[in-house]
Design a protein that fits this description.
The chain is of the alpha/beta class. It has three domains: about 10-285, TIM Barrel (Alpha-Beta Barrel), CATH 3.20.20.70; about 300-390, no CATH class; about 395-530, Double Stranded RNA Binding Domain (2-Layer Sandwich). The chain is built from 17 helices and 16 strands. The longest helix has about 35 residues, at about 505-544.
Length: about 550
C-alpha cells in the first residue's frame, strides 16, 4: 500500500499531449518518450487512444511490450470511450504489460449529455455501470473519468462516481475538462465527493485539469490538498487548447513546498529538463523561455540587483537550484540591467583581473554597448576591455593541423602548437571523428585537465565557402591527471566554465581555434585566481 502522502503521477503526454495541434507522434517517437517517462519515474503512462487509429493501437502495444514489461515498469494505460468496442481495443493495446490499465470515460455535465451524447442521466449511469464492468472483466486496474466534471451537477456526479466504483473502477478521475473552475471551487468539488460518495474509499481519486484560464497547476494542487492522490499531467503542459497541468510545475511545487502540502511524488526531478527537451524536439512545440522550471530563462538573471544577490547567496532569488531539475548552472546574463559585481565576476571567469580604475572604465563602455543590444557575449566583453589590458600572447597557439577521416579508416589528427615557453610541440591522436582526434591531440600537449561540455557550429556567411563559427564550453576536470608544464597550472577556481570561439572556412580548424581559446581562458583564469588568493592571504596576515 502506498503512504497517504504519496501522489501518483499519471502522465498523458502520449495521449492528451498528442492532441495538441501539430503534435502528432509516430510509434517510434512515442516509444522514445515512453522510455524517458519511465526513467523520470512516472507511475502511470497513458500511451494512447487505440480506437483512434491502427497506428495508435500499434504504438500503445509497442509501449506495453517494450516499456511495460520490467518489474519496476510504470502502469501502461490506454484510453477508451464508454463502449465495448473501444474497451476491447484498449485491452488489446495494454494486455502484454505487467501492470495494464484500461481508462474509460463519459461526460456527466448537462451541456455534454444534452448536446453531445443526447442521453438522459439514467442512461449515462447505466452506460457507466455496463462499460466499467466490461473493462473490469478484462483488467484488474480500471480508471473511470467523468468528462466535464468541473461543470457537472454535484449530486449527479456523486451518483455516477458511486456507480463506477460499484462496477469495479479502481481509480476515479475528476477532470476540469475545459479549465473552467478556480482552485477553491475545484478543491471543494473533490472534498464533496469524498464526503458524499459512500464507497469512495475503495478507489483512488484522480484530478485532470486543463489550463484554459491559466489555473491548471493551482487547481491540481487544490484537488490533491482536498484528498485526491493521483494527478494527470503532461510534459511541458502540452495538450488540447491551452494544454494540461505541466508535470514539471506540479512536481516541483510539491517538492519545493513540501512543508506546506505534505505531499510527495516518486519523480526523479533531475530528469525534468532532459525530458522536457525531448518532448519539445519530438513534437516540434518549443518551450517558451519564461516557462516555469524548464524554460531557458528559469535560472537566468540580468537585473543588477538580482545578480548581486545571486553572487552573495543563490537563495536570494532562486527557490530551487538548477541542478535539482537537471538544468545545469545558473546564468548571470550580461545586459543593460546588469550590475558591476556581475560584470567583474564574469571577467574573472574569463581570466581578466582589472584594477578598480580599469574596471570602472570597462564597465562604462559595457553599459553603453548593452543599451544598444539585448545581451553582451564573451567575445564582445573581451573586445570592450582590450583597451584596458596590456597585450599578451596566448598561452598556446595553433601552428599547423593535419587530419584524416572517412568511412574506410579511423579519424586521425596531427597538431603542432606553440607552447607558452616559445617552443613547438607536436602530437597525434585517433578519435571518433576529426574534431575529436584533434582535441585529443591538444589534450596530450596542453596537459590541462578539462572536460568539453558544449560544442556548437553555425554558418556566419552563405555559400559553399561559408565561414564557420564554432563555440565550445569547457569545465575543469579535477579527476584528470595533471602534468603541469609551468606554474600557472597550479591554481584554478572550482566549478567555473570557460567558453571559446573560433572561425574559419574549415570547420575542424575553427573547432581547434575555439578549443584552444577556451583552454587559454581557463589557464589565464588560474593566474587571476592565484593573484586574488595571494592578495587575500596577505590581507589576512596583515590584519592579524
Amino acid at each position: 500500500m502506498e503512504a497517504s502522502d504519496y501522489v501518483r503521477i499519471f502522465d498523458t503526454t502520449l495521449r492528451d499531449g498528442e492532441q495538441s495541434p501539430g503534435a502528432t507522434m509516430n510509434a517510434a517517437e512515442k516509444l522514445e518518450i515512453a522510455r524517458a517517462l519511465a526513467r523520470l519515474g512516472v507511475d502511470i503512462i497513458e500511451a494512447g487512444f487505440p480506437a483512434a487509429s491502427p497506428d495508435d493501437l500499434a504504438a500503445v502495444r509497442s509501449v506495453a511490450e517494450q516499456v511495460g514489461r520490467s518489474d519496476r515498469a510504470p502502469v501502461i494505460c490506454a484510453l477508451a470511450r464508454a463502449s465495448a468496442h473501444d474497451i476491447d481495443l484498449a485491452w488489446e493495446g495494454v494486455r502484454l504489460a505487467i501492470r495494464p490499465r484500461i481508462h474509460t470515460f463519459i461526460a456527466t455535465s448537462e451541456l455534454h449529455m444534452r448536446h453531445k451524447l443526447r442521453m438522459s442521466r439514467a442512461e449515462v449511469v447505466e452506460r457507466v455501470r455496463k462499460t466499467v464492468r466490461h473493462a473490469r472483466n478484462l483488467c484488474d486496474d480500471v480508471e473511470f473519468s467523468a468528462e466535464d466534471a468541473g461543470r457537472s451537477d454535484h449530486e449527479f456526479l456523486w451518483t455516477v462516481v458511486e456507480a463506477a466504483i460499484e462496477a469495479g473502477a479502481t481509480t476515479i478521475n475528476i477532470p476540469d475538462t475545459v479549465g473552467y473552475t478556480v482552485p477553491d471551487e475545484f478543491g471543494a468539488l473533490i472534498a464533496g465527493i469524498i464526503s458524499h460518495v459512500p464507497n469512495v474509499d475503495k478507489a483512488i481519486l484522480s484530478v485532470h485539469c486543463h489550463d484554459d484560464l491559466g489555473l491548471a497547476n493551482a487547481n491540481t494542487l487544490a484537488g490533491l490538498r482536498a484528498g485526491a492522490r493521483q494527478a494527470e499531467v503532461t510534459i511541458n503542459g502540452i495538450g488540447e487548447r491551452a494544454g494540461n497541468c505541466a508535470l514539471e510545475e506540479l512536481v516541483m511545487g510539491l517538492h519545493t513546498r513540501f512543508w506546506l502540502h505534505r505531499l510527495r511524488s516518486g519523480i526523479d526531478t533531475t530528469q525534468l529538463v532532459r525530458t522536457s527537451r525531448l518532448v519539445a524536439s519530438v513534437t516540434g512545440i518549443p518551450v517558451p523561455p519564461n516557462k516555469a522550471v524548464v524554460g531557458a530563462n528559469a535560472f537566468a538573471h540580468e537585473s543588477g540587483i538580482h545578480q548581486d544577490g545571486m553572487i552573495k547567496n543563490a537563495e536570494t532569488y532562486e527557490i530551487m537550484s538548477p541542478a535539482t531539475v537537471g538544468a545545469g548552472a545558473t546564468q548571470l546574463v550580461l545586459g543593460k540591467h546588469s550590475g558591476r559585481h556581475a560584470f567583474a565576476k564574469r571577467l574573472g571567469e574569463l581570466g581578466y583581473l582589472l584594477e578598480d580604475a580599469q574596471l570602472d572604465s570597462a564597465f562604462a563602455r559595457f553599459k553603453h554597448t548593452a543599451e544598444r543590444k539585448k545581451s553582451v557575449t564573451d567575445a564582445e566583453l573581451e573586445a570592450l576591455i582590450a583597451a584596458e589590458l596590456p597585450e599578451r600572447a596566448d598561452l598556446w597557439s595553433l601552428e599547423a593541423l593535419q587530419v584524416g577521416c572517412g568511412t574506410l579508416s579511423l579519424a586521425t589528427a596531427s597538431v603542432r602548437l606553440r607552447a607558452p615557453d616559445g617552443t613547438t610541440r607536436v602530437a597525434a591522436a585517433v578519435g571518433t571523428g576529426p574534431v575529436d582526434a584533434a582535441y585529443r591531440a591538444i589534450d596530450d600537449l596542453v596537459c590541462r585537465p578539462a572536460q568539453l561540455v558544449d560544442y556548437s557550429v553555425r554558418s556566419v556567411t552563405g555559400g559553399i565557402d561559408a565561414l564557420a563559427e564554432v563555440s565550445v564550453r569547457v569545465v575543469s576536470n579535477e579527476n584528470a591527471t595533471v602534468r603541469p608544464l609551468h606554474p600557472q597550472h597550479d591554481a584554478l577556481p572550482e566549478s567555473s566554465t570557460w567558453r571559446g570561439h573560433g572561425a574559419d572556412t574549415d570547420i575542424v580548424v575553427a573547432s581547434v581555434k575555439a578549443y584552444l581559446a577556451a583552454l587559454n581562458r581557463m589557464m589565464a583564469a588560474a593566474v587571476a585566481f592565484r593573484a586574488v588568493a595571494a592578495a587575500v592571504a596577505v590581507e589576512e596576515v596583515s590584519s592579524r
